[in-house]
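Handoff note, outgoing to incoming analyst
You'll be picking up this chain. Sequence as last confirmed:
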Amino acid sequence: MTEVATTFVPGHVTGFFTVDRDDDPTKTGSRGAGLALTEGVTVTVRPATETAVTLNGETVTVEAIERVLGALQVTADVRASTELPVGSGFGVSGAMALGTALAVNDVFGRGLSTYELATVAHGAEVQAGTGLGDVVAQLHGGVPVRLEPGGPQRNHMDAVPARSRIEYVTFGELSTADVIGGETDAISRSGEQALSTLVQDPTLETLFEASRSFARETGLLTEDVRETVMDVGEAGGTATMGMLGATVVALDTGLSDAGYDPQVCAVDPTGATLCPPTDESADTE
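Most recent structure output, in case you need it:
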């Protein structure tokens, strides 16, 4: 046990996905693929008499975190920070849930494995209606390909063996709960086709091509995103829509070459990690 623990969880941009439901939330999930990013969420956990959660210094209510703390039977002070846009398809809620689970395990000595903790976080995300596959992808890092739905103890993972500079711009938010909570048969059919295409040719270029087709076929493509993706293509680059958000993600310098002023990061090769103790993290203020 420690007095404080800090974790880093990469952001995750989904290119395409299915919606696979089960009565057991740890078996519910999605198949699909995306990118884990070097920009992510840092979560610091301390014991507390009453649970409090902040994001970038502001008090927030995050159902997935509340469910994680309830499942692990603790009260804690949870402080998260990120430079990623919230609600724009970067998996921030999943990162907060997973980061909390990993840090709680260290602080409170729960003695659970990484997969057990990620299963708790995945189930919490599903029950909160804020995600279906981000936690599993963020656990692994890289360019994860989810071949089966559910938590990490069920999920058959593969990956595209590549890394890249990543650029992105965001035009606003889309409601994950509204999309995955409605009629999803057409989304799943398109996601299955995209997954089949990627498995046959596991490259970043194919991932982005399959993602663009998925966005068009599902009707999730917004006008701002469509125009920006076209601009990148006309400039000789490769871009797609990040699910679920009004976000454009490009490889290398695709957005810069098209005249945009993007945020820049890269594919994260590591996945979620427990950070070494520092003087700052040990400061209980």
